[in-house]
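Thread: Newbie trying to understand structure tokens

Hi all, I'm a second-year student working on a class project, and my supervisor (Dr. K.) asked me to get a predicted structure for one chain before our next meeting. I've only ever worked with sequences, so writing a 3D structure as a token string is new to me. If someone could post the tokens and maybe explain what I'm looking at, I'd be very grateful. Here's the chain:
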Amino acid sequence: MIEVAVVGVGSGGITAGARVLLDHAELVVGGGRHLLDLGVEPERAFALGGDLSEALDRIEETDGRVTVLASGDPGFFGIVRVLAERFGPEKLLVLPTLSAISEAFARAGLPWDDALVVSAHGRDPRRAVNVCRAHPKVAVLTSPAFGPAELAEELDGMGRSFVVAERLGEADERMYEGNAAKVMEMSWKDPNTVVVYDAARAVGEKGWISGRSESRGRWALPEGEFEHRSGMITKPETRALVLARLGPGPGDLVWDVGAGSGSVAVECARLGAAAIAVERDAESCDRIRVNASRYGAYVQVVEGEAPAALRGLPEPDAVFVGGTGENFDEILKLAAIRARRCVVLTLITLERVVPAAEILEDCGLAVETTFLQASRVKGVGSLHRLAAETPVFVIVGERRGEP
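---
Reply by user tm_fold:
Sure, no problem. This is what the structure looks like when written as tokens:
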């Protein structure tokens, strides 16, 4: 029967109990650095590489005890998942130590029950970056291909502070605190962990659930809860359908093009997505900032006219087009090409509905068009009547089979 002890290696090495398991193991699997530092004899050692399948086969072939060495807490974004899938949780004895995440926050003197933790290791880093755009405190597990400098470059200009914990527990360990510009200029060694935070919200309020996961309350908020100009705002009934089709969540990036009051961008940010509001009117841009601040939402405001203002922006998961200026066709084509998941737009004029759907279809999107009519009950003396809101077409172009 295979018995696998999974030992977390921290800045202080391993515990006495873990040492006993290590010394009595027929096979010791781990990173080359851990095997060397802990003095594992070559005849018992198997160094992990990028592909874990060979190591898993060796473990399965071993008649006797196996010890697997891993950094920090191996059950947190670590090898425990892979081992449990292959051999079953009942075959594992896990001895964790402090994770790199908890050590990084401890060294920085920051609480982290309200932080989100994301991984850019062995996966597309864009979702991790979007979480950093949307939340006030995030820890990022980096990779050799996407380290602190690359992360800082993506977040440059957003006013975030950085803590880089490099090679903790090693003789050459380094802790660095600074802004994106400084982190971008420096060279970094692996392994490292990066904490990205808004200095004004670094401590945060005392909460009851980790990761800032509490409900944001209502959504599709009444227009009276946003600063806006002369009714130039997506109505809550329409916004509810728009948000349902955009599907914003953590790791997503949403463009709100022709943002006006920014109500869609703000609501997407409240639902956990990163949001960029593009608006050409300076006064409207100020209103967007006020609306975002009111709800503690992070919305990047880009003052400029589309489509030119869109071309340098990071790739969106979803795009909402609320403004219909003279460059409408070009804006819609660009949005349809760039969006990973969907494009949603609202129109009130019949003449643009069919051409808009055709543009989305020509760009390979599956199109759904809904005519939405909402009425509100209003008093007339002692009686009541239905007061119709302006009817609107909601057009959705979806990239089927895409994330």
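A couple of things are worth pointing out once you decode it. The chain has three domains: 3-98, 101-201, 223-398. The longest helix spans residues 282-294. Feel free to ask follow-ups in this thread.
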